[in-house]
Amino acid sequence: MWTDRRLLDLLHIEHPIVLSPMAGVADAALAIAVAQAGGLGSIPCGMLDVAQTRAQVDTFRAAAGGKPVNLNFFVHAMPARNNTREHDWREALAPYYRELGVDPAAAMASASRMPFDDAMCALLEEVRPEVVSFHYGLPADALLRRVKAAGCKVLSSATTVAEARWLADNGCDAVIAQGFEAGGHRGMFLSLDTATQVGTFALLPQIVDAVTVPVIAAGGIADARGIVAALALGAAGVQIGTAYLHCPESKVTPPHRAALKEARDDATVLTNVISGRPARGFVNRLIREMGPMSDLAPDFPYAGAAVQPLHAKAQAQGSGEFSGMLAGQAAALGRAVPAQALTHSLVETAQALLRRMAG
Amino acid sequence: MWTDRRLLDLLHIEHPIVLSPMAGVADAALAIAVAQAGGLGSIPCGMLDVAQTRAQVDTFRAAAGGKPVNLNFFVHAMPARNNTREHDWREALAPYYRELGVDPAAAMASASRMPFDDAMCALLEEVRPEVVSFHYGLPADALLRRVKAAGCKVLSSATTVAEARWLADNGCDAVIAQGFEAGGHRGMFLSLDTATQVGTFALLPQIVDAVTVPVIAAGGIADARGIVAALALGAAGVQIGTAYLHCPESKVTPPHRAALKEARDDATVLTNVISGRPARGFVNRLIREMGPMSDLAPDFPYAGAAVQPLHAKAQAQGSGEFSGMLAGQAAALGRAVPAQALTHSLVETAQALLRRMAG
């Protein structure tokens, strides 16, 4: 059915479609549906602890049987706390606390996004997921060796050719080429300069030319046309996120779901005010007034601690104006259909397009 | 040979490849080569006067016989001169004037990029080019009516779905979807906010869905893979610029040619310090130290007047550090082969890829 079988053989999947792991807005439910349709189900674990991660894997396996699962983790280095900067950030946000009637003491003391560590690695050694994907590079050598020794295939995201080469040289079994269009956090780790970030159309073939491992295209792919275009540019498969956020299985808040439904091509920006690292999401009041890029935002993940209570209060009132409503530039191409049906439709429509294009 | 013939029939060309009109770095020589290979040859006229434009058309027609030609113009509204802002801009650049030994009086009194006007329209009525393309929207109704009455097919660039709809509603025969990856000036005209600009992968299918006229994909397309990917996303054809700058027929300066040869995926940024409007080009000292986006830069095209003498002096010394070396994010995919051979190669390789992808 697919002429390029590299990714299918590597990951033991039927179709070259990887569900993007979307921390905070998706869980095993979405992964199960995509896996049942023959894609790779991904569970975002970057905001979960070990027990929660174990429960997600159990849920997936109870429903998806022998289908492979991908567990995704952040691998950022935790920055030293900068009390001055965090204080200044809280001061900058103070008017919103007053306006929304939020107690400043509600600001979270710790961050909700923690890097992959020894305890999580031990869980991997126990549950042995078929695939593990990382964001922001790769974990330290000792941890990575354990992950690979557990039999997990390793993926990570590159936003430049240099990052792709680094990932391939350091043990990735496949590289995700994350174009500028992609929703969510940019996987950038060799540079944090957003001005030179590269669109999928230009990034993908240059990464394909630079590495020998299979390349998975991400960013702007939300329908069958995007899948075929990615294959034309040399991808062995695609990673799709935002299109699946429309599905009933996603865990987006009502304002986020509404934003997806009303999305325009130019509705999103790269912003660091949600977490401290550049991420693409829908423009809302917080981003419009404080960003999109702010020099005040503390380093990832600490910027999020002071924003979280504003998000919680506003969201309880039905507003997404202080939330990180992450999404990519092709959000408007998505449709609110169940994820298994969406996956089947993507496959069938892509196959038909491939046949039609040959004339 | 091509299953989608909409653009071929509209523009009377053999292959769905439009040479991007690149003011200042290309002329009839490149257009002739592309036209002879069956693509649409484009002559950038935005920095030419009427006599120079007439001479370019004569040169093209003497060499390319009955092949259609596309003349390209800027249609920006000239802003009122802002003496304070221009003074501040010159002050900001003064250290470079001193360092390079350039007389401040050398700053140009007027701009080198003028909008399409009555005199140029009269020339079109005389020489009747088969195609006219505009950048920054469309000319005033009275001028546009004369262009269309002269039998010219009209194209213009859209950087958002809203701009594409506006162009289609206002008389464009085809719309160029200019993605974020594209080199040169962004065609944006309904908004100048670069933060929400859209990558080709996401922009193209959304514009295809929004308008009924044929859509030409631009931005990040530099080889056959890009052509096939654009067709998959729904384009009726492609516009290619940077890949042709590598050709011996282009008029790039030696530093610009060297930058193209050494290009990396992340070598360019959007900057307004070259002209006052956002354009994508190679990062150099001027852009690194003054930009990439500067609040000081006077409105387009006046920012360029004070930069021009620095460019001239540095370039005479073999340096591109003060030049607008415009290029897109796929520059590294280009090769220094003659433009006619490049065009033939793009066509043959794209056709082979289309056959191969069908399996």
Question: What's the SSE blueprint?
Answer:
The structure is a homodimer of 359-residue chains.
Chain A: H1 6-11, E1 17-19, H2 28-36, E2 41-44, H3 50-64, E3 69-74, H4 83-100, H5 118-127, E4 131-135, H6 141-149, E5 153-158, H7 161-169, E6 174-178, E7 184-185, H8 200-210, E8 215-218, H9 224-232, E9 237-240, H10 242-245, H11 254-261, E10 268-271, E11 279-282, H12 285-290, H13 303-316, H14 339-357
Parallel strand pairs in A: 1-9, 2-3, 3-4, 4-5, 5-6, 6-8, 8-9
Antiparallel strand pairs in A: 7-11, 10-11
Helix pairs in contact in A: 2-3, 4-13, 5-6, 9-14
CATH topology of the largest domain in chain A: the name is: TIM Barrel
The average pLDDT score of chain A comes to: 96
Please count the helical segments of chain A. 14
SSE order of chain A in H/E notation? HEHEHEHHEHEHEEHEHEHHEEHHH
Largest sheet properties of chain A: 8 strands, parallel
In percent, how much strand structure appears in the residues of chain A? 5-15%
Give the chain pair forming the largest contact, with residue counts.
A-B, 57 and 57 residues
Which stretches of chain A are poorly predicted, pLDDT < 50 over at least 5 residues?
Answer: none
Which quaternary structure do these chains form? homodimer
Structural notes for this entry:
The structure is a homodimer of 359-residue chains. With 359 residues, chain A is of the alpha/beta class. Chain A has two domains: 6-76 and 113-251 and 332-357, Aldolase class I (TIM Barrel), CATH 3.20.20; 80-112 and 268-326, no CATH class. Chain A is 41% helix and 13% strand. The first copy, chain A, is built from 14 helices and eleven strands. Chain A has helices at 6-11, 28-36, 50-64, 83-100, 118-127, 141-149, 161-169, 200-210, 224-232, 242-245, 254-261, 285-290, 303-316, 339-357; strands at residues 17-19, 41-44, 69-74, 131-135, 153-158, 174-178, 184-185, 215-218, 237-240, 268-271, 279-282. In chain A, the strands form two sheets. Chain A has an eight-stranded parallel sheet with strand order 1-9-8-6-5-4-3-2. A three-stranded antiparallel sheet of chain A has the order 7-11-10, with no helix packed on it. The radius of gyration of chain A is 19 Å and the shape is globular. Chains A and B meet through α8, α9, β10 and α14 of A and α8, α9, β10 and α14 of B.
